[in-house]
Amino acid sequence: MKRLLQIIAVVIFLTPGLNIYAYPNQVKATLQLGFGSSVTGLALTTDNNDLFVSYADILKETDLGLWLLPTAQPPPLSTTDGTEGNLDGIVYSSANSYVYAVQDNGHILTFPVNNITATPTLTKPASIDGIKLGPVAIDTSASSPTLYIVDNASSKVYVWPAGASDITATVDLKQAPDLTNVQAAFNVLDILFASDTNEVYVATDVGVVAYFSTDNTGNPNDFVLDSTMAADIGALAVTPDGSTLYAATGAQLPPTPNAYPTIFVISTSTHQQIATPIQLLDSENTDFVSMETMSLVGGGVYGFVSGSKGVTVFNTSNDQLIDVTTSNPCTSTPTTACNPIPTSNTSGPIMASGDNYLYLAGSGNLLVITDNPWVDISSVTYKDSTGADATVLKIGGTCTITFQSDTTGAYSMMVGGNVNRTGKNVVDINGSSSGTATAVTDVIFTFKYNDNSANFQEGDNSVFAFVTSSANSNLKGRSAATVTVDTPPGPLTISSTGFGNQRAYITFSRLTVSDMNHYNLYSDTDPVNVQTKTDIATTVSQTSAGPSITGHIDGLTNGTKYYLAVEGVDNTGNIGPRAYLLSDGTPASALPQATVGPAGLSGDTGGCELVGRGEREDGGWVIEAMALLILFVILSRRRRISCVRSNKGDPSPAKNRGGLRMTLLIIVVYASFGISSAHAEEVATATQADTKAAATPVWWSMEVKSGFWMPTDSTTKKFFNNCCNIVTTIEGGLLYHGRYGAEIGVGVMDENRPALGAITGQPSSDTFNMFLLPMETNGVWRIDYAKRQWVVPYIKAGIDYVFYREGDRGKSIMGLKTGLHSIGGLQIFLPFQDGDNDIIKKMFFIAEARYGWVNSFGKKGLNLSGLTYSAGLLFEF
């Protein structure tokens, strides 16, 4: 019998001459979403997938595929970021996918839909700060949207281009002809923008609709719908083609025999009424608060008005009301029986979507009105690869979705995408992604993960059930369920391996799945065992970014070859496939070995009495370096100081005398730094009559310079290339006539470089640190003989003393190297002052080349000889 009735319905539908009304005609669902009792605005995204609802100081997002609030929501408004304040209107911009909200304190908030959890951008236009704003309309016809915002306190509309720091225009509605004489401030109850006419329409509570062109905001006009200026024009709507404007009054017309809830019909081109107003009895519906027009998917345009007793429907083609109970037009005016779509609570804002749905915000809930098939997913269950119950979908497992449609039709299943069928097909255990859903009968759809793995992602996936009505193919309903996929991490790629001292390194691709937790590393001397062994050598945590990760395994035996492997582990303990081959197909392996820097490779063991061998506490080498610096001042001589343990007997008296002479020279140089400028003036011999002709004599100098050291020894060059070995030096000394001098200097270099393997000599993944403290004494000749010489060549020569410390994974080699050097350079005068009465008499830019023979005069071991190019500043005092 049921099948027969369906056939009769189809025959009636196909019979010529019959009017078949297919429009949203019943509440298919009431979603209890916890909205506040007074909803102030609705905004729908262009793809019909997300609906935003504002109430009080809260904005909520609803997923219209899952029919629920997603976890990611707009943040609460807060005094901390200045966003607090009630939201009195919201609009959506398709131009940039933003939701704009106006507040009761004159502020405007911008919410990025694609990053909805981010703190909204706050705009505080100075011209309207502190003013209660709302309602609001938006013009998205241009590349940059423009908002039209109501100020009911002064009957104005403000024009705000999105993103601007302030409003750009103000429309004073009282300048409209029929609103000029309104004594008291009136309220704006609704506002809309009509893109086809580029006009903004404003509904008031004095029976007048004002309007203005977006090209001429300074000249508002109006038309009167109630000559007594008493009716509340509570809702406005315009047809999709922009030709007709509808204005609803509710039941607030003057108390006359014809005071019925009324919908006026106005031409947007002439701004005149073009049809008899649509009226209905108070008993049918009243208190209209919101109105929408909708292009039906099957053709035609219908209007929907929300009121206290439901949603009244009218056909815009003939401006006739529709009795929802019978789907017939209500021909008498006012109607005697024209039932609205019944709702269970007082209606609020209404919004039409492009896929034949109406959304009505009620008290705490959202009503879904449609004549599309309503799909209800009742359960989602899982089985693992053994057929046992599971809580998620895994490799080898299955998922079963059970749903019903209230209308018989063809169904299809898709994963991902949105309500517009942008996802990919899901095939069931029989290889099909579609079938027939019989009305109010369970459809059980079971699919395997392995058959659909390419279309699912790790974590939550939205699987849609779409149903197309058999009676009307234009009517298509949908619903989505969340299917959670928890699969092991994917395969890894090992890009390289490396060695260190008792250590092996492995570099592999970083997995990007959201639930990635860490990586297990394995090592074994057998290439087969490493593929299956269960003893984890170490773990490496997931990093937040980067294409690859490098991990290392410690405690290995030097000189033994180890084979390496790695696997990923997710948050629930799923283990991915183990990788143990390099990209060329060879086993990943490493040969741990002791690693050395240039000192170690050259056989240098350090061993000074003041500078011991072996491991040191952090910072100990600094104390020893300072001790060496003091030693340098006291015991300067040509050879390494007690560093060679093969020395026999005491140093010769001659060498002691040389050290004494050097010590006295250094004392003199240091003492020269204390000569005051007053003393310099006392011994000045130049006359003061012409300060530019005779300068105050200079007594001492100081240089600050930095340069690049380029080693020349073949062993040292294996570790340091010609670039970026930066040495910074400070020098000071005594000058005679500004030309001749004796200087001392100290510098520093601190570099980290890859160490070499002691067995193979190949670069390792270990690094060593080389700290150099170069000290030197110099004799200098500055070729400065002219009265005003802008460029001064100079040469220097002297003795080097270089403290070094080479640190490599807890062990260190320290020592002192000596040698000779020569320097050639230019100094360029910088005339920043006249130099007569200041402490600094002259300042120069200097550039020099320096070559040092620093190998302890031919001794074996570390060789620090090399060329250094430097630049800096020279100060003469």
Describe this structure as you would to a colleague.
This protein is mainly beta and 877 residues long. The protein is 8% helix and 43% strand. The strands form twelve sheets. The protein has an eight-stranded antiparallel β-barrel with strand order 46-47-48-49-50-51-52-53. A five-stranded antiparallel beta sheet has the order 21-22-23-24-25, with no helix packed on it. Strands 32, 33, 34, 36 and 37 form a five-stranded antiparallel beta sheet that branches.
What fraction strand? 35-45%
> pLDDT below 50 for ≥5 consecutive residues: which ranges?
1-20, 608-695
State the oligomer. single chain
Helix content: under 10%
Structural classification: mainly beta
Instruction: Evaluate the radius of gyration.
Output: 44 Å
Shape: flat
